[in-house]
Amino acid sequence: RRKRLWEEDRIGSEIAYLEARFGAEQSRAALKGLEERLARTTIRAPFSGVWDERHVEIGSMVAPGQSVGRLIDLDPVRVVAGVPERYVPDVWVGAEAALDFDVFAGEQFTAPIRYVGSTVNPRNRTFPIEVMVPNPSRRIKPEMVANMAVTRREVEEAIVVPQDVLVRVEDGYVVFVIAERNQGSVAEVRPIILGPARRNLVVIESGIEPGEQLIVVGQKSVADGDRVNIVGGRQ
User: Do 131 and 169 reside in the same domain of the chain?
Assistant: First the structure.
């Protein structure tokens, strides 16, 4: 009002007008500050998720920075694992990882590795990796224990045998196959070169051919050329 009176009718002094304008600006600034404080009384989550814990009661006074609760996002879930340092060359971002949980027997989850640590833990000689596992049903819960297997390499048309058929010798490993000679079936020793292994299975990169029969029982008690009796077979 003072602005209109001063500009149109020159009523009042310029000082009074300036004082009124300054007071109006102060009032607007104070109002803006109050509106901002009022907006901060409503706590808004930075992401959507599940309200897991409440740390304060309704009506309690809280201070800036004080935790009022815990919000968790369960889809996807982050799974962290430690990989022995000897596998450093075989693990990279984008490699496929397979996970299973004891509580979900027979069910497997797959996801690409999204992070590979750059340092080795000196206490257990492992480096960390992380995967983000889709969890739309939210069945996977925080702090669950998972078993993780990482695909180190893919081998086409590989020969895979149980590790218990291997016989350790001074310069590596051998297996015994059944060979047909004039005197009948005999044990024949074959030096082999091992490839990747997983659990109780190992890839044989060279030394035997597809279709050959391995001695899987008593292989540590036979010698090259010993006669053998085939009492059963498995593939």
Answer: no
Distance CA 59, CA 11 (A): 52
Total domain count, the chain? 3
Determine, yes or no, domain membership for 144.
yes
61, part of any domain: no
Domain membership of residue 53 (yes or no) is no
Q: Which of 109, 129, 150 is the last residue of a domain?
A: 150
| Rounded Cα distance, 162 and 235, in Å | 11
Indicate whether 216 and 168 sit together in one domain. yes
pTM confidence score: 0.52
pLDDT in tens, 164-209: 889 988 888 999 988 888 778 888 889 999 887 777 888 888 888 8
SS3 147: strand
Domain that holds residue 178: 159-221
pLDDT single digits (tens) 139-168 = 888 888 888 888 777 777 788 888 888 998
Closest CA to 54 of 70, 42, 34, 41: 70
Of 119, 118, 121, 99, which Cα lies nearest the Cα of 109? 99
Tokens of 134: 């889709």
In whole angstroms, what is the distance from residue 1 CA to residue 20 CA? 9
Burial of 48 (0-12, 13-18, 19+ CB in 10 A): exposed
Residue 5 CA to its chain's centroid (Å): 72
